[in-house]
Design a protein that fits this description.
- There is one protein chain.
- This protein is mainly alpha-helical and about 240 residues long.
- It has one domain: Rhodopsin 7-helix transmembrane proteins (Rhopdopsin 7-helix transmembrane proteins), CATH 1.20.1070.
- The chain has 8 helices and 2 strands.
- The relative contact order is 0.12.
Length: about 240
Amino acid sequence: MLDIELTDMISVLFVMLAVTVSILVTVKSLKSYRESKQALTLIIAIASFLIALAMIFLTLEKAFLSILGIENLGLLFGATATVISACAMVSFDLFAFKMAFTKRIAIYTAIASLVAAVYVIHWLIDPTKHVAAGEIQFLDPYGLGFQFTPFLSYLTMIPLASLPIFILFYYAKKVRKESSIKSKRAALLGLGGVMLATAYIVELVGIEEVITTGFRSLFVVSAFLFYYALFKLKEKE
């Protein structure tokens, strides 16, 4: 019989709720895109779908490593989650760029993609990658005195996760007088981004499991904020 801890069950519940809402956002955004052909709705559909996939593969990684003890599949799912989550972050960056800026979007997105690629490639090729205590961990391949891959994640993924938040809050302030609905929508999306980035950063840092489980509830909060901002506010216009 599988030994499943309460924290694991709660984590799965949070993730499944967040995945459900994220997929709902994806479906409604795709429907809206077919009607309006607005690029923003397509981008948010892609980003929401990618974040849902990333959470699914993250759950599979945890299940195969900490519960089933099948390391090869756990590492495979972990690698898949890493790649997809990086793509999701770049998609959210693109969404923020597209909403707030009209020029140089391609350049900004290319830079964000390059930063994400640096981290993902190093994660994939790091020869010190191994499984310990049901988690994917890394050693110090360059003799720097610290684990380089986690350090690289802080330098790359945390800024990528934070960037759209600042842009959305900036845009909310910028258009406040022009349109209160647009301003509120951007502010709520920014707040949802704060929740998503916080939960994601806690996953990267890898702190105490009980604390991490609590922070995973923010995935659910962020998904509902995105849904409300994108669709409920739109109905009031």
